Amino acid sequence: MTPLAFLVLAVLTVVSAATVVVHKNPVHSACALVVTLFLLSIFFVGLDAELVAVLQVIVYAGAIVVLFLFVIMLLNLQRDVRATGGPGLVTAAAACGVALTVVIATALRRAGAPATPTVPPGFGETAAVARELFTTYLVPFELTSILLLVAIVGAVALAKRQA
Amino acid sequence: MADVAIAAAKSLFIVLLVLQVMGLGVFFERKVSALIQDRIGANRAAILGFAGMGLVNTLVADPVKFLLKEDVVPAGSDRLLHFLAPILSVVPVLVTFAVVPFGDVLELGGRTINLQAASLNVGILYVLAFVSLGVYGVVLAGWASNNRWSLLGGIRGSAQMISYEIAMGLALIGVVMTYDTLDLQGMARAQGALIGGWLPAWGIFYQPIAFLIFMTAGIAESKRIPFDLPESESELVAGYFTEYSGPKHLLFMMSDFVEVVLVAALVTTFFFGGWQVPYLLRDGFHFPWGTTIALPSIAVAVLQVTAFALKLIFFTWLQIVIRWTLPRFRYDQLMRLGWQGLLPLSLANVVVTALVVVLVAGPTA
Hints:
The structure holds two protein chains of two kinds. Chain A has helices at residues 3-22, 26-46, 50-75, 87-111, 126-134, 138-162. By secondary structure, chain A is mainly alpha-helical. Chain A folds into two domains: 3-124, Up-down Bundle (Four Helix Bundle (Hemerythrin (Met), subunit A)), CATH 1.20.120; 125-163. Chain B is mainly alpha-helical. Chain B has one domain. Chain B contains 13 helices and seven strands. In chain B, the strands form three sheets. In chain B, strands 5-6-7 form a three-stranded antiparallel β-sheet, with no helix packed on it. The radius of gyration of chain B is 22 Å and the shape is globular. The relative contact order of chain B is 0.14. Chains A and B meet through helix 2 and helix 3 of A and helix 4, helix 5 and helix 6 of B.
């Protein structure tokens, strides 16, 4: 990815991410979230991680935010319903943001200039990711699937209790 | 520079092919419906007093009429999203065709050109990603119109499309396991092999259940009868695009038909050999009874592209016949079919396919 393309994408991403937080209308916020996720997936493509990029679009942009929108529309949330938090919350969030920026900047400066990236051939391809996932990281992978199963059972249990 | 030109030419070719087949789809829609309802088809349009070309006139007059109509934006609507929704509904569908191969390779001037606009190692996932983005057009159109019918249509649409995407993706896992690749071109090439020396190794022979699930889910994704609950004229006027007129309405109609062509293209690529012509290899025909006919590369490429286009047209026609044959589902029937019918069936298909693949091929490293 050329520096110019990176810069343009970065500015667009920050603007759309800020729109998610700032915009008064919940539907517009959700749409801005989709744009943010889509732009992030372009960064992944630039990093040779096509699989991560596509999964990001399928899972987050294609499914999760659709459900957000679904709920927003079903409840018919209006702009005045949206709770943005008091001045205390905003101040705390801003302070945390500044602290995080300082931490990242310090870490980057201590790490020094990055070595020239050398990626092995086939890096980021589905086969390479899958091989790592099912050999080196098999146990965490299976544990994650149990976590998801628990979440599904929990959702079903909640739905049954409501009915 | 030459690479850019070739990529542009390939992209242009596939888009033009798709739009041509889409036009044919509209033709079938008019003519098939007339034949099925036992009446004479659309033949009333006269261009400058000339009605001699019958249906062709209608096909020319329809888009012109849409483009010239007033574009009404309802009061109290969200103007930005109302404007964006039709675009968001047609663009993801057209972009998906980038990974659909329309031929094998073309040897031209010392170059070997892969006849696929974009060769991605995540091919199938790319298709699913953009199909899943198509839902935004429907949802946002429904919400932005400030109309109860539109909103109901949009909500129905989002629930329906998410439900059927799951069965669609799971059906494709069986196909991926059979051909051991995610790339659509690799899949089309693998289907050039022969089973028992004579039967083409097309997906339909390995994965018949996945074909039925995928076709059903595909028709549901394109929101046409029997799955047209998001628009259902008899209940919601026109559902999510009730408040659309003129060129924007044309875009929604166009995305409907392009989705039909997309389902046809994907069914062709996954289950009917894509561009494969039975017994046609890169150097000509090799029939199982021993006859060989040598052909130049350009002739092979032309035959393959023609075969792909004909299969595309056939499956477009088939979907339109289905659309004019079946009545609409009720909403609970739609959800039951998706979650209690197609989902368990596609999971079972995945398990059985995995077992067969391991038993036949043995565990691979």
